[in-house]
């Protein structure tokens, strides 16, 4: 490209981007770290620029121009009023100037250039694209430019079989410096910022999976950079992708009730659905109707939960248990998605099945093995395994025939063993390892053996190879007479010292002979947590090493020096058990505990666990990872190593401000990583969750978490017209990724290897059904996406066209999604086909299976809101996915309005006689209603939704709510215990106040939702807090909040986020009211020491202070004049002092000194 082109491009960038960039600091920019939050898009050049430019993209930090052989970055000076820029040329040395360019993933946007008054010079309807593909830039090499998940620009080189990657080379001009940093990233320094290209991720497809190939940037001179690629298959396509693949948290959700819930293991199926198990102490742990057991049994129960591929809904969830303690430690799936579980039970009536190996409990605790059907509705088999003492299982796996292998520990006694097994006698000491193989029916032990010495031995992890050989890892203590068994020629044949040593044992397919058995340890305490094997029979072990004395590490491993009190150790043992392939530490300056390991097709190990270190830990995290610093308490971690253990490819923290612990890990075929664990991170110290997660709030005490790192998912279901699942339906994916699968027994499918901002098409095909729609085009893919295909039998006659009609409803106040809004679809030709749906928490709605070709009206409705448009009326010919409505609050629901005139009334409750005294604003009439007793708390609200306040009291001594509703009469509900504080409000957005209490002892909010009668509980706050609830985010739902000595903690119902800010003093009284009239509650306090009301308006953040009241008053913020704005008022010993619109104020004598004004802030 000649300098003349650049001169014109520099001028263009000054005009287009300098005002935007003028506020960005000049020197600290990483220019490739993003594009200002907008997806990357490319324009084709149709004469609006020099003809040598083929495509270009603009953003707030730089412009990029692509020519036949060059990528030209034009970077403006971000200084105010600057008119300078620099150009950095990245030229592909020796590239073909005649290579072909094509836009990919055409976007809906168009650009028009109308310069001057001559239409001949205008350029209109210029298309935009999500990417650009240039073919044969070198022989057999293509390059694709596109955006990634974080809206960062990136490029990929695709090297065809037989082509040479070493011919790819960038020659860089116009930069101040070109370097490769310590993390392997290419850093290009310019006068106005840094261009940073992340270390390449290079891979080849092997057996349908991405197998990583070691690669790196390579300097070939002062300003020339290429790629060095290690051993790869020259007969397969090689892709060089300078990007990071795991830094997206694709989804994350809480899962739990109000008690202690622990996630211990996780698996995923071919559709991307996620299966989690562990134990729960929560009676209200989420379950699904029709699942095996929807009621908690006693103490700790096993739970099994299946989430869809985007973790937005439960497919099924069930308890399993008896009258004692039941904990599942491991889960496995077979090819039909049957579920296998193991753990331990102290229940004499743990559920078993007829014909199972052992249907009777044996000792104080037994192992159980349970096989659950794919729908979670029935046990296929379930059995005890145990003797007359104590046993527990820690892991299980299965072979290709669905025999199940289990390991754990036993105290001996009458634990069942089989004739011919390796060791049929308990070895003494505290416990032995056991290894059992259970046949496919669950009726017989194929083999069962002890492994151990005469001290303490635990089997923590088990894996099985294609020949049925079992690999066991765990830890052992030095025996007094008998050590843990080892084999000649093994890596370590003697106990190394310290409290524990790891062991690794390979047991033959008959369970009769040790193929190898080795110690693995140093002179301190070492314990293995988990084991995985590759196709060559190499074993990968993860465990924990105390102090590190003498623990074996290998030359060239990632970290050969122990770091803190406890380090994670990751080791690969060769197939004969005679030598370490690699062994490395990973850790920080405290304690880091490993719990699980998985390996991908390339042999790259992934390990997880948790770090106990305090804030400031130096547990290693990689640049660009999801969380690169410790959050607080215990944090979960995820770390990935290169196949040879020499390089840390990816490492991240995962957590909030409290304790978070990962216990289980799973990989899918596309390299996505799934974690399960537990969190005590509350809503005030939030664990990260995805916006549309199944449960984005903390249930209480201790919750399960389920998280996925990797790509987005396209998932869904095929159903018939009655909504029943259509199993074994063929579903195909095409576009930037391709795939094919059959739906499972419940009609679910999922593709998880999809690309952010990419374009796709999904289609369902069956010989027995015609589906509506025929296919789903998705462009661009910006979030996890769920689809529904509705099938109509082909035998029922001609195919009719059906459409999907949907959209979202959003408040004009703060752009909050408006849930619980009713949408009505009216068929004007056949009114009997009228249907209604309700928006979800994200404000989304959808009508499926709408007959196309008819005229319809869509009407939104929710009390207290006006909608724009008021209706949609149209002839529906195909899918109408964007029928969106904007909702503006109108006449917000009044508070303390007993007569329904839209104005607050003066109302007091007199404990001495149990009477309510109300002065109605409409008639100025006075009324007395006997409803209550001494000791009651007045809680008058609109409980029946008729826009009139209902008399109500909460009786703390009983935990009862007594209500006299204006439209429904008397009601008594027991909801609460001694010490609870009533916090009634409209939490579910149905226009009716919900019964609710806040429990200071635990900080848990308990509420009874009026919309569907469901119960909700979650922890938010601590004992010293003051609770209050109001609609701060404008979505029509009350937001739980607490005030803590001048700090506000608010849980926004619109998106589940937590807002924390300082406003007030510890002696202030917190209150909420809409002082600016924008439809949202404002944060406010009343200060008794000076009688001043302080507030911050939600509309514009304006601070206001007004003196009104004196020490000893009770503030009563209500809307006495009905103008939609809260009026400051105080109650002083029977006298009301009220401000009104315009600053006027009034005084009314109404009440006694001992009366309690309703809605007064105590």
Present the secondary structure layout:
Layout: H1 3-21, E1 42-44, E2 55-58, E3 63-66, E4 70-76, E5 85-92, E6 100-113, E7 123-138, E8 141-147, E9 153-159, E10 169-173, E11 177-180, E12 186-190, E13 193-197, E14 201-206, E15 209-213, E16 215-219, E17 224-229, E18 238-241, E19 249-255, E20 261-268, E21 274-280, E22 301-307, E23 314-320, E24 326-333, E25 339-345, E26 366-372, E27 379-385, E28 391-398, E29 404-410, E30 432-438, E31 445-451, E32 457-464, E33 470-476, E34 501-507, E35 514-520, E36 526-533, E37 539-546, E38 566-573, E39 580-586, E40 592-599, E41 605-611, E42 635-641, E43 648-654, E44 660-667, E45 673-679, E46 703-709, E47 712-720, E48 730-735, E49 739-742, E50 748-754, E51 760-765, E52 769-772, E53 775-778, E54 785-793, E55 802-811, E56 822-827, E57 835-838, E58 844-851, E59 854-861, E60 865-868, E61 872-876, E62 885-889, E63 906-910, E64 915-919, E65 926-930, E66 937-938, E67 951-955, E68 960-965, E69 969-974, E70 981-982, E71 995-999, E72 1004-1008, E73 1015-1019, E74 1026-1030, E75 1039-1044, E76 1047-1051, E77 1058-1062, E78 1069-1073, E79 1082-1087, ...
């Amino acid at each position: 490209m000649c300098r003349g082109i650049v001169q014109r491009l520099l001028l263009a960038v000054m005009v287009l981007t300098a005002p935007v960039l003028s506020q960005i600091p000049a020197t600290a920019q990483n220019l490739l770290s993003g594009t200002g939050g907008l997806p990357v898009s490319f324009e084709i050049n149709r004469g609006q620029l020099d003809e040598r430019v083929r495509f270009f993209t603009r953003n707030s930090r730089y412009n990029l121009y692509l020519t036949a052989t060059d990528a030209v970055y034009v970077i403006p000076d971000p200084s105010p009023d600057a008119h300078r820029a620099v150009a950095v040329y990245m030229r592909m040395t020796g590239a073909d100037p005649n290579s072909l360019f094509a836009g990919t993933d055409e976007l809906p946007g168009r650009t028009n250039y109308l310069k001057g008054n001559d239409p001949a010079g205008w350029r209109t309807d210029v298309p935009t694209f999500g990417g650009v593909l240039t073919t044969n830039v070198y022989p057999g090499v293509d390059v694709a430019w596109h955006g990634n998940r974080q809206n960062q620009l990136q490029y990929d080189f695709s090297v065809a079989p037989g082509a040479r990657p070493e011919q790819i080379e960038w020659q860089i001009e116009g930069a101040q410096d070109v370097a490769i940093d310590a993390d392997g990233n290419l850093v290009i320094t310019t006068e106005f910022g840094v261009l940073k290209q992340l270390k390449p991720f290079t891979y080849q497809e092997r057996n349908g999976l991405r197998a990583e190939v070691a690669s790196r940037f390579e300097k070939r001179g002062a300003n020339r950079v290429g790629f060095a690629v290690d051993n790869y298959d020259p007969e397969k396509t090689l892709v060089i992708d300078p990007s990071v693949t795991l830094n997206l948290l694709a989804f994350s959700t809480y899962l739990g009730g109000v008690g202690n819930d622990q996630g211990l293991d996780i698996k995923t199926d071919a559709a991307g659905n996620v299966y989690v198990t562990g134990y729960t102490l929560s009676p209200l742990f989420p379950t699904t109707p029709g699942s095996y057991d929807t009621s908690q049994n006693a103490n700790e129960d096993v739970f099994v939960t299946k989430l869809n591929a985007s973790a937005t809904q439960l497919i099924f969830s069930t308890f399993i248990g008896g009258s004692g303690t039941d904990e599942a430690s491991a889960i496995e799936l077979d090819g039909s998605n049957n579920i296998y579980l193991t753990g331990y039970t102290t229940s004499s009536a743990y559920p078993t099945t007829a014909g199972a190996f052992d249907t009777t409990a044996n000792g104080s605790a037994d192992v159980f093995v349970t096989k659950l059907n794919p729908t979670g509705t029935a046990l296929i088999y379930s059995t005890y395994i145990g003797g007359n003492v104590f046993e527990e299982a820690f892991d299980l796996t299965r072979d290709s025939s669905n025999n199940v292998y289990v390991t754990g520990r036993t105290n001996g006694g009458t634990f069942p063993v089989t004739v011919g097994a390796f060791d049929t006698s308990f070895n003494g000491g505290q416990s032995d390892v056991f290894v059992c193989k259970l046949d496919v029916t669950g009726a017989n032990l194929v083999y069962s053996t002890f492994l151990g010495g005469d001290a303490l031995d635990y089997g923590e992890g088990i894996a099985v190879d294609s020949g049925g050989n079992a690999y066991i890892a765990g830890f052992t203590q030095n025996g007094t007479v008998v050590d843990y068994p080892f084999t000649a020629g093994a890596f370590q044949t003697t106990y190394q010292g310290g409290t524990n040593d790891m062991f690794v044992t390979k047991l033959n397919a008959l369970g009769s002979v040790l193929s190898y058995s080795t110690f693995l340890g140093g002179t301190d305490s070492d314990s293995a947590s988990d084991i995985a094997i590759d196709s060559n029979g190499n074993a990968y072990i993860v465990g924990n090493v105390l102090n590190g004395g003498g623990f074996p590490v290998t030359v060239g491993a990632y970290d050969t020096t122990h770091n803190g009190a406890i380090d994670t150790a990751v080791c690969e043992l060769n197939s004969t058990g005679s030598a370490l392939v690699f062994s490395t530490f990973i850790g920080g300056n405290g304690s880091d505990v490993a719990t699980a390991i998985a390996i991908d097709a390339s042999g790259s190990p992934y390990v997880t666990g948790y770090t106990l270190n305090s804030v400031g830990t130096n547990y290693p995290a990689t640049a660009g990872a999801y969380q690169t610093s410790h959050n607080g308490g215990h944090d979960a971690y995820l770390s990935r190593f290169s196949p040879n253990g020499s390089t840390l490819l990816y490492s991240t923290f995962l957590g909030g401000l409290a304790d978070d612990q990962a216990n289980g890990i799973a990989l899918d075929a596309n390299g996505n990583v799934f974690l399960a664990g537990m969190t005590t991170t509350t809503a005030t110290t939030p664990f990260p969750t995805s916006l549309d997660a199944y449960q984005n709030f903390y249930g209480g005490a201790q919750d399960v978490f389920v998280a996925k790192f990797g790509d987005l998912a396209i998932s869904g279901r095929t159903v018939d017209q009655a909504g029943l699942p259509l199993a074994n339906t063929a579903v195909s994916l095409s576009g930037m990724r391709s795939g094919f699968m059959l739906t499972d027994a419940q009609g679910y499918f999922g593709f998880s290897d999809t690309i952010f901002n990419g374009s796709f098409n999904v289609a369902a095909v069956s010989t027995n059904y015609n589906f509506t729609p025929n296919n789903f085009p998705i462009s661009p893919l910006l979030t996890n996406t769920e689809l529904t295909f509705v099938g109509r039998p082909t035998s029922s006659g001609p195919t009719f066209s059906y459409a999907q009609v949907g959209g979202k409803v959003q408040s004009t106040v703060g752009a909050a999604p408006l849930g619980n809004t009713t949408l009505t679809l009216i068929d004007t030709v056949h009114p009997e086909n009228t249907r209604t749906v309700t928006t979800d928490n994200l404000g989304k709605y959808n009508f499926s299976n709408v007959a196309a070709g008819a005229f319809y009206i869509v009407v939104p409705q929710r009390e207290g809101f006006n909608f724009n448009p008021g209706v949609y009326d149209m002839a529906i010919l195909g899918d109408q996915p964007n029928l969106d409505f904007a909702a503006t609050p109108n006449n917000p629901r009044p508070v303390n309005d007993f007569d329904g005139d839209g104005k607050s009334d003066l109302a007091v409750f007199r404990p001495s006689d149990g009477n309510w005294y109300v002065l109605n604003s409409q008639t100025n009439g006075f009324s007395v209603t006997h409803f209550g007793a001494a000791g009651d708390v007045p809680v008058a609200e609109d409980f029946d939704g008729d826009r009139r306040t209902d008399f109500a009291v909460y009786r703390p001594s009983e935990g009862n709510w007594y209500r006299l509703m204006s439209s429904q009469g008397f009601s008594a509900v027991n909801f609460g215990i001694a010490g609870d504080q009533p916090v009634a409000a409209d939490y579910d957005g149905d226009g009716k106040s919900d019964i609710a209490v806040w429990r200071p002892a635990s900080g848990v909010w308990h509420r009874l939702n009026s919309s569907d009668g469901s119960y909700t509980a979650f922890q938010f706050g601590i004992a010293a807090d003051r609770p209050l609830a109001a609609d701060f985010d404008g979505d029509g739902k009350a937001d739980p909040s607490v005030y803590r000595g001048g700090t506000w903690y608010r849980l926004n119902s619109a998106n589940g986020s937590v807002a924390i800010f300082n406003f007030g003093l510890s002696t202030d009284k917190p209150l909420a009211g809409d002082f600016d009239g924008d439809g949202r509650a404002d944060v406010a306090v009343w200060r008794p020491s000076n009688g001043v009301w302080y507030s911050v308006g939600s509309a514009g953040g304006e601070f206001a202070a007004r003196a009104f009241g004196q020490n000893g008053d009770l503030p009563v913020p209500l809307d006495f004049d009905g103008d939609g704005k809260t009026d400051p008022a105080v109650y002083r010993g029977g006298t009301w002092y009220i401000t009104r619109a315009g600053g006027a104020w009034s005084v009314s004598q109404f009440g006694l000194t001992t009366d309690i004004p309703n809605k007064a802030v105590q």
